[in-house]
Every structure is written in C-alpha cells, then in structure tokens.
Amino acid sequence: MSAGAVPHYLPLIIVIPVIVGCVLVAVGSYLPRPLTDFLAIGTAAAVTGLAAVVLTTASHSGRVVTWTAGWRPAHRLSVGIPLIADPVSAGLALLAGALVTCALLYSWQYIQSVSGRFSALMLFFLAGMEGFALSGDLFDMFVFFELMGAAAYALTGMKIEDESAVQGGLIFGVMNSLGGYLSLAGIAILYSRYGQLGLPQLGAMLAHQRPDALVIVAFALIMTGFLVKAAMVPFHFWLADAHAVAPSPVCVLFSGVMVELGVYGVARVYWTVFSGAIPHHDVTRAFVVLGALTAGIAAAMCLLQRHLKRLLAYSTIAHVGLFVIGFATLSDNGTAGAALYVVGHAGLKAALFLLAGVLLSKYGNVDEHRLYGRATADRVEACLYLAAALGLSGLPPFGLALGKSVTEEAVAATGYAWGPVLFVAVSALTGGAVLRAGLRIYFALGPRPAPESGAGAGEETTGAEEKPDTKTLPRTPITMLAAIVVLVAGALATGLIPGVGQGFADAAQRLTDRAGYIAQALGHARPAPLRRHPAVSWTAEGIGLDMLSAALALGVAGLSLYAQCLPEVLHRIFRPARPVIVTLRRLHSGHIGDYVAWLFLGVAAFTALLGLPLL
Amino acid sequence: MTVYAYFVAAWLMLVGAYGIVRSRNLVHAVVSLAVCQSGTYVLLLAVGYQHGALAPVFGSTIKPSRHVVDPVVQAMTLTDIVVSATVTALLLALAVQVSKRQGTVDPDELTALKG
Amino acid sequence: MTVLLASALSLVAIVGTAVVATSQPERQAVTLSFYGLTLTVLFLALQAPDVALSQLGVGAAIVPLMVMLAIRSIEARHSQPGSRQESGDGEPGQPDEQSGGGQP
Amino acid sequence: MSHRGRLLVFFIGAGCVAAMFAVAFFRMPAFGGTMHLYRDLAVRAAVAHQTANVVSSVDFDQRGMDTFGEEAILLASVVGAAVLLRPSDEEAELRPKRPGRILPSTKLLGYALLPVTLLIGLDVVLHGQVTPGGGFQGGVVIATGLHLLYVAGSYPALDRVRPLAAFDIGEAVGGAAFGGLGIAGIVAATSFLANFLPRGSFGQLTSAGTVFVLNGAVGLEVGCGMVVLIAHFLRQDIIIAAKAEQAQ
Question: Residues 90-109, chain D: which have Cβ within 8 Å of A?
C-alpha cells in the first residue's frame, strides 16, 4: 500500500481482530483446534504487520490521521472521531500485536480453549488495546478502555475451577469499572463546558487557559480510570490479584502492555488536552510522588512473595511506578527513556510469565518454596530465566537497561537528585526477588525452605493450589519455548540495534508536541521538523548504574537465599521492620470493600496533591 | 434546580460506591456498582438537557431545528447502558463461580487472595 | 416541567439509595427493577426517548433477570450441603414472582 | 482492615470526592442552559445525511466508531459469560426438572404476548433512523420477549425456540456485518464506516443510508447476544449441577 493510503487503512488494525473474533465465535466449535489457533495467530501477526507499516509511516510523516466516517473537522470543530497514530501510539499498537502473537503462539494447542473462545477473547482484547492506543477522542478511549476490560475480566477468571481465579477476576472487574466510571464523570464535566470530545479540539480550546477548579477536577477524575489501569498506589490492589490467577499468556498481555496503556492514557490526555492549561511543575510533582510511592511499596511487596506470578506482578507495579516518574519529568529525554523502558520491560516480563506458566504446567504449582529444586533438569528454561531476571534488574545490553539509564539521567536533570538512587534500589529489590525464586527453583541454591515458613504464614497466597493452564506436560513444547526465546531476543535487540534510542527520542518529541498534534489532526499541516536533541544512547555513567543495580540484585538474592545463615546481629537490625511488613501485607487483603475505600482516598489525595497548590 | 440534577448524579455514584464498601454479598456489590454507574447516565443526560427543548428526533410534525436537547450525550448514555449490562453480566457470572468454589459470597469470608 | 423533572430526579435518588440499602440480594432484584423504571421515567422527562427505551429493556428487565438468576444459582448451592431436602422449596425451573420485568 | 477502618478510609476519600464534584458543578453551565456546541454540529450533520433521528445519526454515522466498540464489548462479554458459566470439570448438565404448577392465565398471557413483543422489537429496529429506538433497543425488546416463554413456565419451550448455536452465529454475524460495512466504507469512500449508501429522503423508512443497515446488524447482534447471555445464566440455574448430585 502506498504511503498516502495508510490513513485509510488505519481502522483495520482495530476492526480485523473483531471480525475474526466473530468468525471464531460463530464457527469455532466446528473447526479443528489447529485451524482456530492458526487463524488467531495469523490475525494477530497481520495486525502486528499493519501496525509496523503505520509506525514506519508515522515516523516519517509525524502522525497518521484519519477521521472515521469521513467527518473531517471544520473551523477546528468536528462531529467525528479521529484515529491518530503518532510514533508512540503506533509503537504501542505494534507492541500489543507482537505480545498477543507471542501469547497465542505459547497457547498453541495447549491452553484449554472452549471451542475457540479463548482465542476469540484474546482477539477482542487485542482490538480493545489497539483502539485505546489509536483513538483521538476522549469518549472513544473510554469505550475501548471498557472493551479491554470486558475481555480481560473474562480472561482473568477463565480457570473457573480455581477458587482464587474467579475472585481475582471479580476484584479486577469492580475496580476497573469504578475507575472507568469516575473517568466518564470527568469527561462529562469537561464536555459540559467545552462541547467537544476529540482530543485535538479540546486541546485547542484549553490551550493557554488559566486552570480553574472545573478543569482540575475533570483532569483528576479522567486520570483516575487510567491510574487504576496503570496500577498506581493506592489503586494497585487489583493487579496482583488478577495477575496471580490469570492464565500465563494472559498475564503477558496484562503486564507487558495493558498496564502500560494506562500510563499511555495519562501521558496522551495530559499532553494533548491539558498541558496548555495545567502547569508542568504541578503535574511533575504529583506524578513523581505517586510513582515513587508505587515503586517503593511494590518493591517491598515483591520481595515478600513466594507465589511466583504474584511476585512478578508486584515487580510490574514497581516498574510502572518508575515509568510514571520518567514520563512525569515532562522532558523529551525522560519520555523517550521511559518509552524504551516500557518496551524492554515488556519482553522480559512476558518471558518470565511464560516461564512461570511452563513451571505450572510441568510441576502443578507456582509456589517458590514447593518448587525448590524441582526444575534442575530444565537447562534451557534455566538459562532463559536467568537472562530475563538479570535483564529485569538492569543488566546491559538489554533494552530495559538503556531505557532505565536514560530515564535516570532525565529524572536527575529535572531536579530529583534522589531519582537514580530510587531506580537502582527498586531494580535491585525486584530483580533480586525474581532471581532468588529462579535460583531456588532451577538451581536448588540456598537451604530448602520449609513449606510453611515466612513472616506471614497463613496471611499470604502461596500459589500451591493454583490450577494449571494446560494438561500436565512431560516436557516443554517447542512452540512455548519459541515464544519465550522470541521475547527475550526482542528485549535484547531493543538495546543492541543502533539507532533505536534515536527513534524513541523522535517519538517522544511527537508525543510532547501539543501544537503539532492539534495542527496535524485538525488541518493538513505538515509536521514540524524535529528538534535536535542530545543523543539517547548508552553512556558510561548509565552502564555503571545498570551494572550496579544488577550486582545489587544478585546481592539481594543471595542475602534472602541464605537469610537463615546470617549472624543474629543482622536479624536484629531488620526486626523493627517486621510490624511494618505485616501491616503492609494485611492491607493487601483481597477484600473488595477495602480496595474501593482506598480508591476513593487515592482520588482525593491525588487531587489534593495536584490541585491545592494551584488554587 | 441549576445544579440539583448534577448533585443527584454525584449522590448515586457515591452511594453506589458506599454500597460496595459495606457489602456483605458479592451480588449486592455488583448491583451497587450498577447503581454507581447509573450516576453517570444521569450526569451525561443532565449536561445535555435544555429547558423547553424537544427530543432530538425530527419528523413530519417537528421540523429540523436546533431547539432540541443534546443528542450526543444520549448516544454516550446508550453506550454506557450497554457497558453496564455487559459488565454486570460478567461480574455476576464471576460471583456465581466464587460461590461455587469458596462456598460463600461474603467478601469478609473470602480468603483466597492475601498478601 | 421543572416540577416533574425535580420529582423524577428525587425519586431516582431515593430509589437508588433504597437499592443499595437493600441488603438481602433476593429483594434487590425487585428494587433494582423498580429503579430501572424510575430511571426510564427520568429519561423520558429529560427528552431522551431512545435512552429510556434501552433503559426499560436493559435496566428494568434484563439486568434484574440476570441478578435474580445469579442469586438463585448461589442460593441453591448454599442450601445444599447436608440438607438436600431443604432445597426443594426453591425448586429450579419454577419461576417465582420476583422475575423483574417478566411480569406483564 | 476492620469494618470501621474501612468505612473511615472510605468516608474521608468519598467526602473529598464529593467536595470535588461540588466545586466542579458550580462552575459547569447551569442545568437546562442553551449552550450545546456539539448538539448544533450534530443536528446539522444529521440533517445533511437525511437522518431524522439525530441520536441514530450520532450512533451509527457521526460516532459510529463508539458503537463499533460498544458492539465488540457486547460480543466479548457474551463470549466471556459463556466461558465463565460453562460446566466445570466436576459438573454436568442435568435434565431440566418438570416445571411446577403455572396458572393457565399466566401461561396464555406469556404465549400471547410473545408475537406482539417480537413484532414491536422488529418495528423498533427497522425504524431506528426515523423514530426513537434502533438496533439496540429493538434487539433488547426481542430478547426480553423470548423470555416471556420462560415466564409462561416452559423452559423446554424456550429451549426449543432457542437453539443456542444458531444464536451464537447470529450475534457473530451481526458483529461481523457491522465491521464489514465499516470496511466497505473504506473501499467506497476512503473512510471507515463512511455513509456511502444513497440516503433517500428525510423521514422515510429507506432514508439515512448505512444507518438503516447498521441498525439491522446491531439488532441482530444485540437480540441474539442478550438471549445467549441470559441463556447461560438460566442454564446455570436450572440444568447444571455437580456430578455427585446427579448420581443421587
């Protein structure tokens, strides 16, 4: 297809998965399993290919814009809905497509799919993510937010034989819906004054306005839905519950791209609609506080887990906290670094979840303590796990390390000198926890943990009763391994391919360019030429910090493996922390009422943090 | 009257959320969530209302004019109602399964997910 | 007109509160259905016949019906262990008068 | 958290959120005011496309993308409910018990009302572009109507007129047709969901171009989808039971 025709075909990225999903619903029960699997994987791959074409076009022409149903804007107003792909949204569309392809490849033949319905739900989920990433309209974003949600709740609760799965799905559903409704209330409030819903139109109207209470309240409410999706403290409770119980290939999508789409929603809506009205430093302050709190609490929770998927889920929350700090710098480099961080993280975390799924299929549980030494024969898996875990803690040359170092530098440059310290500490703690689990499971290092040991016996989810995603597998199927290898290789490639940093820096400039977005969406304006920017690439200092966090992660892993063998003095140092840990654990109670109460307190706190200094 | 409708909407949202917080039954919590969402319908339609204006459906008797209430909020509310029905259905299905697996639908007694 | 709107709004607020305050879910299906009807009236008063029609079908009939069916499957399960005879009075397959919008 | 602690946290949070709402509401345009920018644009656009029901024009023409997403949500949740309410490994389907005693008048009313509601539903679907209603509303009426059979006391009768596989296909065809018409818009007029069919004259049954066809697709999807959705709940209630119970 020629470059000029690309905008016309942009909606296909959203429509094709829905249509194929319909086909699977209609005839899925009559087709043989390989055919439905092939159809689903083929569709996901085709969507990925389309997204790649759009990304290429967008990085040349700035943005790919299409107004659905042909309602082009006049006088900066329109009745239609635009789909707008700038490099960041097209990149996310590509990431979502690629991860769904890998997840479906992993599921090939093995994940129990009731007459093609698992594949159909995955495709609807894909459509929701693509729609959310590409939409240029507030209400339309809400619709696709809900589509993501509807498919995701069902996918979470799929293993109906598993008592925690259905509860996790329910909690996820209630929290996300509540967040969505508060967002919708915010949209209605904004609409009452401005009478438009498109992001570019609203951005044009709000530019250079003094923000009054209506704008701030609307902003805070709209953000709530996205922050719930992004699992920021104290909206994060649902994530660990949902990830712990969803089938592994679904976790890949949750951790790899859905949660990040929440962060994207925050960045997109702030940059295009509100950045002209709400001063930058207030937004930076609010989100840096939120991100730091999230990263800290989640890193501590991560270290406390023995349920492998729950452990990985808390590590995701901690990393999302760091992404948010990166985007909150509101600088080109911070944004570029955080975007690169997201992509690098997606590949590694996806690989780790799939490895956890393999363990579950082979050994019947995901409890780190029970799995001790069970998988010593799985050499290939052990290597992949070790590589992914070290990559997660920041080991170069994975793309994650590059993103992390660029973000650290930008955060420090914004005036938060403690930023790099936090980044290194959180990477070391979460990476250490992941490594600890791997060293126990694959290498039988450290003393054998007692099945009922730990600070909070009876107060935690162990993962011993988790129901497998598949029939018990004697050995790892080649399709599963292939999916994992592709993911790890992809994560490595983002750090090694020259020019990747440059591409992300250009993409970040497009995301933060409000005027350019509006001009190109509402008119036929050519994109502004890109500013020259400092190189986004490996630096000696960054590599040093990355190596440091990887080394510290190894240290953390070693310490917690051999905690029993430490001298009494060291134990005494940690004793005052015990009540804090117990309280922290108790707060994650799995009680829906608690979570809703925290959600409202969170909205109030966030609004106060953002709005009070402005009034 | 100038803001009464808005306050009714906010009341419904908050009272629905309160229902979830103090709920002793997951089905009750799901229904409360539906009440919370109905607050958004009321808010949307209230935003688009105009005193004395007619429904935005023209016909042989009503000539096209601008003296109608906002059709856009109505379209949004329609979507919202579909979302409500479908989300409620999924959550009820999950609640039914929770009761089968754990033998209770009281959030205070559900213990599968902790820490 | 204003009086009609104000009373419809007040009714919705009161009935909505009543739905949340009904702690026995069996009765909630009924109050929810009634709440759906009050919302329908409000939407008509707000000049939104399209929305009122959907609300009538979804909010007053389909959703309460699903709530009722969900409650019955849950109750049937809870009265089972140990006392199989007891479940006889909640005989499945026999519709009771609580079917929200079903009653003509 | 304890019950009291939970309520305390909630009341602090909700109190602040209520204050936020209040502050915003007093800065919003007053209820019932005359300033509705989008309304003015939408009415003009609907008239330009010969669509008498402006809400239908917004739903299927101007903001058709929203409705496409909405239909996908419906499909996803119907499939999701089917997955969640399937009989689990320890369960099996039970033969439905004989219905209890039903008053003959209730039965008669149920059967008599069925064709009436179906006709009303069809009418609501077909006239969506000119009168209030449309595919969604009509589909819901049809789905509700079918369940009058259940109220009339006959689950077997309901089961006969409701071959689930066919309804699954119906809902999928409806959803796919919506997407397909959207793509046809790209082919015929370069943009997704473009209203490329002849638009007829204002207020007629055949007016409004694609709005008419899309209404039909949505009617099919919603009607079938709602029936399937309720069917899964009914099945759960009536015929799924633990294998152990069945053995008795």
Answer: 90
DSSP-derived 3-state class of residue A474: coil
Calpha distance A596→A592 (Å, rounded): 6
Query: What phi and psi, each to the nearest 5 degrees, are found at residue D108?
Result: -60, -45
DSSP string computed for B86-114:
HHHHHHHHHHHHHHHHHS---GGG--SS-
A139 interface with B at CB cutoff 8 Å: yes
CA distance D206 to D214: 13
Tell me the residue ranges of DSSP E strands in D164-247: 240-242
Contact B101 A160 (CB under 8 A): yes
pLDDT in tens, A146-166: 999 999 999 998 888 777 888
DSSP state of A137: B
Fold of B4-52+66-109: Helix Hairpins (1.10.287)
Cβ of B23 within 8 Å of Cβ of A593? The answer is yes
In a domain, C24, yes or no: yes
Mean pLDDT within D136-159: 75
Residue pointed to by tokens 């601008």: B66
Question: CB of B87 within 8 Å of any CB in chain D?
Answer: yes
Mention every residue, 6+ apart, whose C-beta is less than 8 A from residue A19. Answer: D175, D176, D179, D180
**Amino acid making up residue A504:** F
Give a yes or no: residue C82 inside a domain.
no
Answer yes or no: do A592 and B30 touch at CB < 8 A: no
Q: What whole-number distance in Å separates Cα of residue A152 and Cα of residue A148?
A: 6
Q: Is C85 among the domain residues?
A: no
pTM score of the predicted model? 0.93
Residue A15, pLDDT > 80, answer yes
Domain definitions of chain B by residue range: 4-52+66-109
Number of domains forming the structure of chain C: 1
DSSP C83: -
**Do the domain assignments include residue C83?**
no
